[in-house]
Amino acid sequence: MEFAKPLPSYLVTRYHGWKATSYEENQGWYRRLATEGQRPRAMVISCCDSRVHVTSIFGADQGEFFIHRNIANLVPPYAPDGDHHGTSAAVEYAVTALKVSHLIVLGHSQCGGVQGCIDMCKGNAPQLEEKTSFVGRWMEILKPKFGGVADIDDPVEQARQFERQAVVASLENLMTFPFIESAVKAGQLSLHGLWTDIGEGGLECYDPKTGAFEAV
Ligand SMILES: [Zn+2]
């Protein structure tokens, strides 16, 4: 595979720094994680966006969160059609093998994926309509929710509301997985919807009673 190159030097330097400090000081902990295996209590589904840093927000260490990241923190509906389903595979493993107690969907402000979906819904993104656009096809998961925010005039507020709806859509789709529905009904698993404001460091939690997101 002649296309793969050595690691850039700045990353090599950073790695050796980590090995000599963080790893060295916690070697026992790392070795225990390696031999005992992982037992995370929570799975987190967040966006790929580099500004979303869930381990930082919750001060989480290695072994605490089983994390899956994808464009716009979306979960597709349950579809056992024999295709490649990365998100569904991660969810299945977390719930049926690791038996996590909490499944958290974390949305965020200024989400490029959600903005792309808005652009598609308004007919402003022909490139995303192409069959070859993986982002466009992926964001179709969220399209049915656009009706709920279509009347919001302010584009910034519309995007923020749609980002929250991406979290709600994922929670709804999670419940279409039979093993999730049964774990939730048995009281073994709880679902949580969060949205974080990157610039302000804010965190909101979806309240199923009101359907609104409330500050944590
Ligand atoms: Zn995003």
TrEMBL record:
**Source species of the chain:** Leisingera daeponensis
Q: Which Pfam families match?
A: Pro_CA
| Entry annotated with the keyword Secreted | no
Catalysed reaction equations from the record:
hydrogencarbonate + H(+) = CO2 + H2O
Extract the InterPro entries matched here.
Beta_CA_cladeB, Carbonic_anhydrase, Carbonic_anhydrase_CS, Carbonic_anhydrase_sf
Q: Which UniProt keywords apply?
A: Lyase, Metal-binding, Zinc
Question: What name does this protein carry?
Answer: Carbonic anhydrase
What functional role does this protein have? Reversible hydration of carbon dioxide.
What class does this enzyme belong to in the EC scheme?
lyase
What is the top-level taxon of the source organism?
A: Bacteria
The entry assigns this protein to a family as follows: Belongs to the beta-class carbonic anhydrase family.
Coiled-coil stretches, from where to where? none
This entry's Enzyme Commission designation comes to 4.2.1.1
Cofactor(s) needed by this chain: Zn(2+)
